[in-house]
Design goal:
heterodimer, A: alpha/beta, Rossmann fold, 4-stranded antiparallel β-sheet, 8 helices, about 25% strand, B: mainly alpha, Arc Repressor Mutant, subunit A, 2 domains, 3-stranded antiparallel β-sheet, 3 strands
C-alpha cells in the first residue's frame, strides 16, 4: 500500500491573543490507499478542520501535509489547485451539486475544468455513475433526484479520474439509515479500488464501516481502534452460549 | 430468543420434522443463534404436552415424527408476537455501574474510562458491520440480526457521548480528603435528638 495522505505534527490556530483557538494540536495521521478511516469526536473537536487541511482547502499554522507524497506547502498555489482537482475528491453533507447542471455534468465538471475534452469526460462520468448505480439518472437535474441519488452523484464526482484521496464530511447526515449505509458501502467499495478515504462522522454505526476509527478531542487524536478480529469471532461467541 | 415461539413460527408454515426445524431456525437467524437438535426435541415435547403442537405418531423414533401447529399454538404465537418484551425495570447495566463507580474513585479520569469503553464498543460494531458487508445481499435474516446489535451498540456509544458531555459541564471538584474522618452529625440528626 502507498500513503495517500500524511499529516505531520499539524496544528491549526485561529485568532490571536485572548481569542486564540487551537483547533488542531500536533496531529499525526497517515492514510494508505485502499484504507477507509473514520474520524469521530464531539462538536468543536477539530474534525472538520482536519478534513479541510487534509484537502488543502486551508493551510495548517504549523506542520506538514503530504498528498501522494507531495508536501502541499512546497508547491505553488496553482499547483495546489491542480492537485485539488486531480488528486482529491470531496463529499459534503449537503451534496453541493450545481443545480443548473445534470448529474453527469456535475460529475464531469472537475475533469472539464482540468482541460479534459467533453466527450472523454462524459465517458468517464457515465462510468463513474454506473459504478454508483445511478447511471439511469445521468441526464436528470439535482432537484429531480432523491437525497440518496444526489449523494451517489456527489461520490461519483469525488472519485472520477485518478484520485487517490477521498474526503467526506458527514456524508450521510442528510440521509435515512439505509441510504446512509448504502453511501458507506459505496465509499468503502471506492477505497477497495485503491483510493484512500477519510470520513468525518458523529454516527458510530457509520464509522464502523471504516477500517480504522480515530477519535479527536480538543484538537488532538486521543485514541484509535485496532484492527478487529474477523466476523467469524462473533459467531464463535454464539456457539459458546 | 424464545425457542418455543420460534419453532411455533416455523410450524405455522406447515408440518415439519425436528431436524428441518433445527436447520431452518439457524438459517433464519443468520446462524447467530446455534440450536442443538436435543434442544429442539425437548422443546417440541413440551409444546406437545401443552397442546400447542401435535405429531403424526404418538410413539416411535423422534426423528421420524412430523410436527404440526394446533389452533391453540396459532393463538399462542399470535399473542406472543404482540406481547412487548420485558423492558422495565431496566437490567443492571455493568457499564453504567462502572462509570458511576469511576466518579467516586479519586484520581480517576472518567473521560478516559468513557473513551476506553467507546473504543471497545465501536470495535465490536466494526465486527458486526463486517458480518453485514460480507453477507449475501438476500440474507435478510443476518442483516436484521446484525442491525439489531448495531443499533443496540450505537445506543451505548450515544450514552457514553452524552455522559462525556454532561461531565464536562460539571464544575471542577475539590480533592477528596485523604484521611477518613468520622462524619459530623447532620442537621437532621440534631433535629431528631
Amino acid at each position: 500500500m502507498t500513503t495517500a495522505l500524511e499529516l505531520r505534527h499539524v496544528s491549526k490556530i485561529y485568532g490571536s491573543g485572548p481569542n486564540e483557538v487551537h483547533a488542531l494540536s500536533e496531529v499525526d495521521l497517515s492514510v494508505e490507499r485502499g484504507e477507509l478511516v473514520a474520524v469521530m469526536g464531539p462538536s468543536g473537536s477539530g474534525k472538520s478542520t482536519l478534513l479541510t487541511i487534509a484537502g488543502s482547502l486551508e493551510e495548517p499554522t504549523t506542520g506538514q501535509v503530504l498528498v501522494d507524497g507531495v508536501d502541499l506547502a512546497a508547491v505553488s498555489r496553482s499547483d495546489r489547485a491542480k492537485m485539488r482537482r486531480r488528486s482529491i475528491g470531496y463529499v459534503f453533507q449537503d451534496f453541493n451539486l450545481l443545480p443548473g447542471l445534470t448529474a453527469v455534468e456535475n460529475v464531469t465538471l472537475p475533469l472539464e475544468l482540468d482541460g479534459t475534452r467533453a466527450k472523454v469526460a462524459k465517458a468517464s462520468g457515465i462510468k463513474a455513475l454506473d459504478a454508483l448505480g445511478v447511471v439511469k439518472r445521468a441526464e436528470r437535474y439535482p432537484d429531480e433526484l432523491s437525497g440518496g441519488e444526489r449523494q451517489r452523484v456527489a461520490i461519483a464526482r469525488a472519485i472520477i479520474g485518478d484520485r487517490g484521496l477521498l474526503l467526506a464530511d458527514e456524508p450521510t447526515g442528510a440521509l435515512d439509515s439505509l441510504n446512509g449505509e448504502t453511501v458507506m458501502r459505496l465509499l468503502r467499495a471506492a477505497t477497495r479500488r485503491g483510493v484512500a478515504g477519510v470520513v468525518v462522522t458523529h454516527e458510530a454505526q457509520l464509522a464502523s464501516w471504516a477500517d480504522r476509527v480515530i477519535f479527536l478531542r480538543d484538537g488532538r487524536i486521543v485514541d484509535q481502534t485496532v484492527a478487529p478480529p474477523g466476523p467469524e469471532s462473533l459467531l464463535a461467541a454464539g456457539d459458546r452460549r | 430468543m424464545s425457542v418455543p415461539h420460534a419453532l411455533l413460527a416455523l410450524l405455522s408454515e406447515g408440518p415439519k420434522y425436528g431436524l428441518r426445524l433445527q436447520s431452518e431456525f439457524e438459517a433464519r437467524t443468520g446462524d447467530v443463534w446455534p440450536l442443538n437438535v436435543g434442544q429442539v426435541y425437548t422443546t417440541l415435547q413440551r409444546l406437545e404436552r401443552d397442546g400447542l403442537v401435535e405429531s403424526d405418531d404418538g410413539e416411535g423414533e423422534r426423528s421420524r415424527k412430523r410436527y404440526r401447529i394446533t389452533s391453540a399454538g396459532d393463538r399462542e404465537l399470535a399473542d406472543w408476537l404482540r406481547t412487548p418484551p420485558d423492558l422495565v425495570p431496566p437490567p443492571r447495566d455493568e457499564l453504567v455501574i462502572k462509570v458511576l463507580v469511576a466518579l467516586e474513585v479519586p484520581g480517576t479520569d472518567v473521560h478516559e474510562i468513557l473513551q476506553v469503553h467507546r473504543r471497545h464498543v465501536i470495535e465490536v460494531m466494526q465486527r458486526y458491520t463486517q458480518v453485514k458487508a460480507t453477507a449475501d445481499e438476500d440474507d435478510f435474516a443476518l442483516a436484521l440480526v446484525a442491525d439489531a446489535e448495531l443499533f443496540r451498540l450505537e445506543g451505548i456509544v450515544r450514552w457514553l457521548d452524552a455522559a462525556d458531555a454532561r461531565l464536562r459541564q460539571l464544575p471542577p471538584t475539590t480533592p477528596a480528603p485523604l484521611v477518613d474522618v468520622p462524619p459530623e452529625p447532620t442537621r437532621t440528626m440534631e433535629v431528631s435528638q
